[in-house]
Amino acid sequence: MSSIRIAKRELRQVMRRITSEISADSITRQTQNVTNLLFSMPEYQAARRVGIYLSMMVGEIATAPIVRHALENGKQVFVPYTYKPAQIPTTSSGHPSSVMDMVLLHSWEDYVGLEVNHWGIPTPSEASIPMRQGYFGEVWKGGGSTVEKTSPGDEELDLILVPGMAFDVERRRLGHGKGFYDFFFHRYREDRILKDGEKAKMPLLVGLALEEQMLPEPQSIPTDDRDWQLDSLLVGDGRIFRATKVQDPVPETPTFEYNGAHPDKGTMADHV
Question: What is the C-alpha R_g of the chain?
Answer without folding.
Answer: 18
